[in-house]
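#lab-general

N.A. 3:47 PM
ok so I finally got the sequence cleaned up, no stray characters, all 375 residues accounted for. can someone with queue access submit it? mine expired

B.Y. 3:52 PM
send it over

N.A. 3:53 PM
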Amino acid sequence: MFFNFTESLKEKIKYENIDKVIFFTSIILIVFGFLMFFSASIGFLNKAASEDYFANFVKMQMLSYLIGFVLMVFFYFFNLRILYKFSFWIFAFSLVTGFLIFVPGLAVSHGGGVRWVDIAGFSFQPADLIKFGSILGFAAYFARYKKYLDKPLYAAFFPILLALPIVIIFFIQKDLGTLAIIFFIVGVMYFLNKTRFVYIFVAFLLSIIMAAAYAYTNTYVMDRIHGLKEESYQTKQSLIALGSGGVYGRGYGQSVQKFFHLPEPAGDSIYAVIGEELGFFGTCFTALLFMVLILRSYKISGNIKNSFLKNLAYGIIILYFAQFVMNTGSMTKIIPLSGDTLPFFSKGGTAIIMNLLELGLLIKLTRKDIVNNNV
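B.Y. 4:20 PM
back already:
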């Protein structure tokens, strides 16, 4: 009876069609990510007023992993035609959650930024929802109007209208990191959909001019840029952590920096904790896992026949790539501090939930039967 159930489950999951490299790399990333999160979060024992804070903190993250896993399975089985049909509505809903930040009584401040919303005791970060909503919205747009992308109206005017509320939300929030990630995703989608180069160039130029003007008129952005030369406190401490780990690291759970110096050891500084505890090999192993997931998914996604599904897969892949680069780049002083999380590793309930949800979709989108057939 048990074996009949197992065979039935395999048939429903279509295990034979799943790409095993992506599947097992994903499992390793999730397990390794949680183990490193747990180790890094121990640093809060020295910072928090009581052990209850640490216990509740870990419980909330574990709950987020559980919810994320449920949604990962749900979206793996979700009908992709329905997802396409409601893609613009999901995009619109994500934007609505972003504007809730500006509703008095709902906004929550943390770390000097107002980027969280609290409704009936449940707090979440709209930025992570908007990232996913943007991927869905623009994937559907490029699929629906692909044959018209040689016309200025469809290649420039309408996409700008779609992007305008995103720009407004993150400019007011002063969250240029998230805005840069979304613009990068959309820009790569432009390129992959073979839009005329002149439109790509103009969009890129306008983005650079807007970002430069905004950075120049906002001291907090300029401070982070100057931090590349002067070394901000967080950057300095992350480099010390990475350097003290050496080749093999101090050992799992043995980080010193997470207790005393790293501001967000389980958040955007978690890559530094990995380097201190597991050394150069640990950071390389982390990078290797992301590289395998991203490159393997990218290679398979290029063969997807359905335009919407191809754009959706590319969007998720680019999101993982951009977040990895921005997090590790800021920890190694390659780029200014952005505050972006490391997917599957950093604390943040909304981020973990959305990471796993997107992973469920990516595993499904790279299945052989999805790739070879129009769905």
